[in-house]
Amino acid sequence: MTQTLTIIRPDDWHLHLRDGELLAGTVPATANVFGRAIIMPNLTPPVVNLAQAQAYRQRIMAQVPAGVEFEPLMVLYLTDNMQPQEIADAAASGIVYGAKLYPAGATTNSDSGVSDPSKIFPLYEALEKHGIPLLLHGEVTDSDIDIFDREKYFIDRHLGVIREQFPALKIVFEHVTTKEGVDFVKANGRLTAATVTPQHLMLNRNDLLVGGVRPHHYCLPILKRREHQEAIQAAVLSGHTQFFLGTDSAPHARNAKEAACGCAGCYSAPAALPLYAHFFDTHGALDKLEAFASQFGPAFYGLPEHNDTVTLIKKDWQIPATQHIAGVEFTPWQGGETIRWCLAD
Ligand code: NCD
Ligand code: ZN
Fold this sequence. Notes:
By secondary structure, the protein is an alpha/beta fold. It has 12 helices and 13 strands.
């Protein structure tokens, strides 16, 4: 008999939908499965105020397929020049659910990010006061720090201080990639959490670099050595409440990834939930998928769980090798690979 798995409808707590014509492909890819998603604001130009968040939200809603219920949870992009009032306005709107700190230069479209995370304390104060979570790209960008150590240095230099100075602030350590990050989250209670991507669960830096460079596995923060991957896996497989699903699905055109200077980001949305199911199944922990995908995130953000479900089927499924959106070719992450789970319909 075919094995199926029905879980409460999940949410994606870290997602890049991009903008313009691409929304016609990226929005359905997520909205057909996930009920809500935290929409990352690293557009060009970035989403730095409420008016921009409202307009972006409308462009997203226009691409939600008929009959599908999907709520984009909008995010403000923190900058050196942002005024605390911007955060107060965003909080009052009811459509903004987070503020993203990108250290300037840390990743794709982060040029207008924060030049020094220790210089925007009035913004953290406003976030704490208005109950808006701080979402962190937790990497330093100093040129003398090795790329594999950037996350660890961010924790030592910034995260500890922010956590201590703003005890009531909700903090999400986005796309955690190191044992140090995992340990920090575990040690800091209910107001500190982390999102976990499929690639950081399933791969380590050998998968990126041994036998040839795999540009489709290149994302930031970069894949780390196996002991870090194992720390992330252990936290998730143990059912720790502070670790939940955030794909960091981040589409770049195939030719921009397969290039002499390839872009960072894995477009995982087309197969996201089956990929996580495959991972949990591989580790004999399918019973832990639902809480990770559908319960820990809402509990952290103070939102209700969905009252409908999605069903997965245990069946070999080949992830599509390519997807065209608005005439542009994208390679879904793990495209062409066969995994053991797929969606029921
Ligand atoms: C993301 C993107 O392309 O927007 N890239 C990535 O490698 N994860 C940005 C980000 O989340 O760092
Ligand atoms: Zn991201």
